[in-house]
Each structure stands twice: as structure tokens, then as C-alpha cells.
Design brief:
Layout (H helix, E strand, L loop, with lengths): L2 H15 L30 E5 L8 E8 L6 E2 L39 E5 L8 E8 L6 E2 L42 E5 L4 E4 L1 H4 L7 E3 L5 E5 L2 E9 L5 E4 L6 E4 L8 E3 L4 E4 L2 E3 L2 E4 L3 E3 L3 E4 L2 E3 L2 E4 L3 E3 L3 E4 L2 E3 L2 E2 L9 E3 L3 E4 L2 E3 L2 E2 L6 E4 L4 E5 L2 E3 L2 E4 L3 E4 L3 E5 L2 E3 L2 E4 L3 E4 L3 E5 L2 E3 L2 E4 L3 E4 L2 E5 L15 E2 L14 E4 L5
């Protein structure tokens, strides 16, 4: 039983026993002490319990009480004070932020008059969402006092944040609305492991008179926003990605044709995506020298020059997807591969080679590698020029596979469309080889290889190859048909 309840019970029992009324006189049966002139105040019929009010705030506590007809000084009738040592603590007091239950309602700081409004900060950037508010004395870990975040899901977006090439209005300008123009000519490096971002614009932008030199860290993605960057990039670290945020049509890496390639890659895990690479000039790989495993996606290689590989020199496993090669040139002694010169495994998919020149070999594409394979699928070769193999040339490849390709309107001295020498087997399936021109083998020129043509259209009429479809070192094939399946060897004919 609580002290307060016990006190109430004792009062009730005292009254029930029947003390005399508070008259100021002694009872009739009492022995009267003539010397005692004090009235017996706590033995009257209407006596009550009163409580010590130590802090003099008008509220007492049941822990210190007495029975009296009139409350002595320092005592009150109310026993509901929850802290009789604190003047500002009692029922009805004003709750304030002081970690004390000021109004004795059993809670601390709830409804405090000096509480402040806090805002949810989900992304932890120090700026909160004005739509999610909490009134409290102290903010929790995920609450802040500043409600001006324009996107509380992105930690790099808040008022005054540095602008990055990340597709977001980082500094909350324009009410958080992102625009391409706001990030034009900006570049940022994103460490994929730590999810940290760094502005690298100054390292890559260069000028029309001097290219910048840039070496990205391994495991990072360098994002290029729309614009032109005059730069030479060296990539000695693994898992480096270079990406144009707005795609190749809007984002250009320009090598200034100053005797340096645009990209030089000597590691593994390179990914190049959504970029135009132009005006590169080097002995190997005008735009890209690849010395390791690499992937190129949705890019454009245009107007680059080299001795081998006007667009790309490939010395490592390479996959090229959705990419355009145009106006690239190789020149010099034993030059080749206007678009790509490959000495390793190569896969080309959904790509276009137009108007490239490989002076000696492979106007669009040249594969020259022992023990490696070359596969080209769903790609087009038009208007390319070379001495041997205007569209595609291959020599010494372990195997060549061409599927659903179009080789049309290319020109060479030998093999206007295709040229294959010293290759084990060339499989040509579901393709079109038409309208190509050469002195020998308008469609294809074969030497020491086996060509297996399956359901491939070799042109007819005005779209036929000139002077004939296949030169095979033996009986030539003047007209190969529009869907025939046949095979030829470079020594035994067709």
C-alpha cells in the first residue's frame, strides 16, 4: 500500500473512533490540566490530513503529513507534488526541456513549451524533409533541424552541395529539378566499392590547344556529362569504367590529333560506354589501345588514325556492342584495320563500320592472330576501303564466325567485301555480301582457308559484286546465288 493510501486509511479510522469536535475545549471525561491552555487541535471531529510543502509551490507530498484542523505553516491540503524539493515541479507546472517531469504527469519533456521542430533526414546528409516533422526537445540520429533537403533519398543532394555528374541537382537549385545543361562539361569519378564521388572535371576537360592527361583509379567509374573533353587517358588499373551519361551523341573525348591516342588500356575489366572517341592518333590504336580484357558499348569511333587499328588496336579479349566506326584510317607500312585491328579474341555485335580505310588490310575490320577467334554478329560494313578485304579481312585466325551481317559497297584490290587467308574455317551464315568491288573477288578473296557459306545472299543484278562473287585460287564462283549453301577453299576453289 502506498504511503498516500495508508495516510488516508489512518484518517478514516481516526474519525471513526470519534474524537471530540474541534471546539478548543477539553473533553468532558478528560482530566484537565489547569496549566494547559492550548486547544487540542488534532483531536477534533473535523480534523484533516495536511502535507508538508517543502518547496512552497502550493503542493505537498504524502511522505510528510499530519492531522490538523488548520494547516500549520508550511503545510497544504494537496499531496500530489512529485518532487517537493523543486519549486518549479508540481501538477500544472509548465513543462520545459530539462529532462524533468515538471508537470508531474509521469512523462519527461513531453509537450514542453520550448521544444523545437525536427525533420527526418533519411539519407543522412544533414538536411531534412520538411514534410516529415517531429516536435521534441532533442533530435534523434535520423532527425535534423534543417528542413531544406530537396531529395531526402540521395545523400549527395542538399542545399550547397557540390555539383557532380551524377544525374541529380546536387545543390537543390531549381527546386531539385535536374537538367542536362546544369551538368554540361562536368566529370565525376565514382568509387563503386565505397560509394564515394569526386569531381574530376579539371583533370579531364583540357582545351582545344592542349589535351589533359588523366589516370583514373581502379574500381571507379568516371562519368562524363554532355560536352567535349580534350584528353588522353591512361588506364593501368583493373575494373576501370568510362561512361558518357548522355550517350555518344552528346559526349566526346577528343585526342586533338596531337600524336597520342585517346585511351590506353593495359589492365583488365575496362568498360567504355556512351562516348564518342575522335581525333586520336597513335601507332597502335588511334582511339583505343587495348592490352587487356575490355568491353565497348554504344560508342562511336570517328576520324582516328594509326598504323594498326585506326579506331581500336586489340591485344586482349574484347567485346564491342552497338558501336559505330566511321572515317577511321590506318596508313604506313603493313597497316590495317581501319575500324579495328585485332590480335586477340574479338566479339563484335550490333555495330556499324562505315567509310573506314585500312591501307593494306581490312578497311572496316582486320583480325590477325594465331590461336584466337573472331565473331561478328548483326553488324553492317559499308563504304570501307583497303588493298585486301574492303569490309573484313582475316589472317591466321583460329576461327572466324560471321552471322547475320551485311557487307555492301566496300572496295579493295582483292576481296572487295571479304578477305580470308591462313584461317582454319570461316563460317558465314544468314548474311548479305553484295555490291562490293575489287580487281579480284568482288565479294570475297580466299587464300588457304575454308569458307562455309550458309543461306547467305551474295547479290544479284545491279547489286551483284564486281567482277565476281568469290575468288578462290582455283575455279572462281562468279555468281554465288542469293541463298545457296556451299563451301570454298582458297586452294581448291568452290
Amino acid at each position: 500500500m502506498s504511503a498516500r493510501r495508508l495516510a488516508h486509511v489512518l484518517v478514516y479510522l481516526a474519525i471513526a473512533v470519534g474524537p471530540a469536535a474541534c471546539t478548543g475545549k477539553e473533553g468532558a471525561n478528560d482530566e484537565v490540566d489547569p496549566a494547559d491552555s492550548t486547544a487540542d487541535e488534532d483531536d477534533c471531529d473535523d480534523a484533516r490530513m495536511v502535507y508538508l510543502d517543502a518547496d512552497q509551490d502550493g503542493y505537498g507530498t504524502a511522505t510528510t503529513m499530519e492531522r490538523a484542523c488548520d494547516a500549520p505553516a508550511g503545510y497544504v491540503d494537496d499531496d500530489t507534488d512529485c518532487d517537493d524539493a523543486a519549486l518549479g515541479v508540481h501538477p500544472g507546472a509548465e513543462e520545459v526541456c530539462d529532462a524533468v517531469d515538471n508537470d508531474c504527469d509521469g512523462t519527461v519533456d513531453v509537450g514542453a513549451v520550448d521544444a523545437v521542430t525536427w525533420y527526418a533526414d533519411v539519407d543522412g546528409d544533414g538536411f531534412g524533409d520538411s514534410a516529415v516533422a517531429v516536435v521534441a526537445c532533442d533530435g534523434a540520429e535520423d532527425l535534423v533541424a534543417e528542413p531544406t533537403d530537396c531529395d531526402d533519398t540521395l545523400p549527395l543532394v542538399y542545399p550547397g552541395a557540390p555539383e557532380l555528374c551524377d544525374g541529380a541537382a546536387n545543390d537543390c537549385d531549381s527546386a531539385g529539378e535536374w537538367t542536362v545543361a546544369a551538368e554540361a562539361n562536368m566529370a565525376s569519378a565514382h568509387d563503386r566499392a565505397t560509394d564515394t564521388w569526386t569531381d574530376v572535371t579539371a583533370q579531364v576537360v583540357g582545351s582545344a590547344s592542349a589535351a589533359a592527361l588523366y589516370e583514373p583509379a581502379g574500381g571507379t567509374t568516371t562519368w562524363f556529362c554532355a560536352g567535349t573533353y580534350f584528353v588522353h587517358i591512361s588506364i593501368p588499373n583493373d575494373d576501370t569504367w568510362l561512361v558518357g551519361r548522355e550517350g555518344a551523341a552528346s559526349t566526346t573525348l577528343d585526342g586533338l590529333a596531337d600524336g597520342g591516342g585517346v585511351l590506353e588500356h593495359t589492365a583488365n575489366g575496362l568498360r567504355v560506354e556512351g562516348l564518342t572517341l575522335t581525333n586520336g592518333s597513335a601507332r597502335y590504336g588511334g582511339a583505343l589501345f587495348n592490352g587487356g580484357e575490355a568491353t565497348v558499348v554504344d560508342c562511336a569511333f570517328t576520324n582516328n588514325r594509326a598504323t594498326l587499328g585506326g579506331g581500336i588496336y586489340n591485344g586482349g579479349p574484347l567485346t564491342v556492342t552497338g558501336t559505330t566506326f566511321s572515317g577511321n584510317v590506318t596508313e604506313g607500312y603493313e597497316s590495317g584495320g581501319g575500324g579495328i585491328y585485332s590480335k586477340n579474341t574479338l566479339l563484335v555485335e550490333d555495330s556499324t563500320f562505315t567509310g573506314n580505310t585500312g591501307e593494306d588490310l581490312g578497311g572496316g575490320l582486320a583480325g590477325v592472330a594465331d590461336f584466337y577467334t573472331m565473331t561478328v554478329e548483326r553488324s553492317t560494313f559499308t563504304g570501307n576501303v583497303s588493298a585486301l578485304g574492303g569490309g573484313i579481312a582475316s589472317s591466321k585466325m583460329q576461327g572466324v564466325r560471321l552471322v547475320d551481317i551485311v557487307v555492301r559497297g566496300n572496295t579493295a584490290t582483292s576481296g572487295g567485301g571479304l578477305s580470308f587467308t591462313d584461317s582454319t574455317t570461316v563460317q558465314l551464315t544468314g548474311s548479305t555480301i553484295a555490291g562490293n568491288t575489287a580487281e579480284e573477288g568482288g565479294g570475297a578473296w580466299l587464300g588457304a582457308c575454308l569458307l562455309e557459306s550458309d543461306t547467305t545472299d551474295w547479290g544479284s543484278g545491279d547489286d551483284d559484286n564486281t567482277p565476281h562473287d568469290i575468288f578462290a585460287g582455283g575455279p572462281d564462283l562468279p555468281y554465288a546465288g542469293t541463298s545457296d549453301t556451299f563451301s570454298c577453299t582458297g586452294t581448291g576453289g568452290c
